[in-house]
Every structure is written in structure tokens, then in C-alpha cells.
Amino acid sequence: MLVLAEAPRWNTAPIGAPPQPDYLNQLLLAEGPPDLWGWLAAAREAEGERLRLITRGPRRLDVDVILVEGEESSDPRLRLPHPALLERPYLLRGAALLVPHWTIGRGGAGILELARRTLPPDWLVGLPNELRPVPTGDGQQHEPTL
Questions:
Q1: In a 3-state reduction of DSSP, which class is residue 80?
Q2: Nearest-5° Cα angle at 81, 80 to 86
Q3: What is the rounded end-to-end Cα distance, in angstroms, of the chain?
Q4: Over residues 8-14, mean pLDDT
Q5: Domain total for the chain?
């Protein structure tokens, strides 16, 4: 997997979770597996030997696949776009910073436009005013993923 860009990090309180320290959240734009299940496997591998004993319980690392360009999935093991994309400001802001030109759904709204319509004003500061190309690591055409 090749990391192309990263969004800022945000500390957030756990949502709907047992008492625990704040989470440190960050989105990465990466190139890697050619299919959705490869991305899920890469996320699980990055988490290491994580035991999922308590739903939303404390953990050292939690890796989620948020978006895969041009892909959607309703499979309960990997729902894309991630169900929390429009609910958690750091996810939508991070996506708008990294891939503002991507769209959700066929003919759907662009990420930057969704951010402008959805995020509170303080989360809009520093978002791009216009769309810019996605950085690539080697100049080749790849399928980047958040």
C-alpha cells in the first residue's frame, strides 16, 4: 500500500462507546489492492491481533475503509461509503481535503459540495475553494482509497 496524502489528525470523544480516552482520528489517501475485499484485509492486517470483545471498546488501533473511488457496498462486513461519513465531521472534512472531486453514488454529489452543505462553519475553514487533481505516487493511474 502506498500512502499518497494525509488529512490532519483530530481528537474526538468516543460516540456510543463505553467510557474510554478520546480517539485520535486521521484519514489517509492510499493506493493499494484492486478490490474492496483487499482493502478490508489490509485494514485488518494493520490492526494486528485486535480482539473485538467489546463493541466500540478501547483499542490500540482501529482502521476503517471510508471510501473507494467509484465503489459502493451494502455488505455488512464492508459498507461503502462508510455509514458515518456524513455523521462525523472529521470524516467528511478529511475526505473533502483529500478527494474533493470524488462523488458518492452514481451521479451523486461531490465530496466538497457535501462538506459545504453539511459541515458546521468552523469545520469549513481551510477547505479548497476549487477542485484539484489527486496526487499520485508514480504518475500511473490507480484506484486510491480512503
A1: strand
A2: 150
A3: 12
A4: 91
A5: 1
Instruction: Output the 3-class SS for 12-74.
Output: ECCCCCCCCCCEEECCEEEECCCCHHHHHHHHHHHHCCCCCCCCCCCCCCCCCCCCECCCCEE
Give the number of other Cβ atoms within 10 Å of residue 128's Cβ: 12
Expressed as residue numbers, the domain containing 119 is 2-15+22-145
Other beta carbons within 10 angstroms of residue 66's beta carbon come to 20
- The whole-model pTM stands at 0.82
Cell triple for residue 23? 480517539
Kindly tell me if the per-residue pLDDT of 57 is higher than 90.
no
Tell me if 43 sits within 8 A of 63, measured CB to CB: yes
Separation of alpha carbons 80 and 74, rounded Å: 7
Proportion of the chain above pLDDT 90, given as a percent: 55
In this prediction, residues 70-86 reach a mean pLDDT of: 94
Q: How long, in residues, is the chain? A: 146
* Averaged pLDDT of the chain: 86
Spatial distance between the Cα atoms of 2 and 44, rounded to a whole number of angstroms:
16
CB within 8 Å of 124: residues ≥ 6 apart: 115, 116
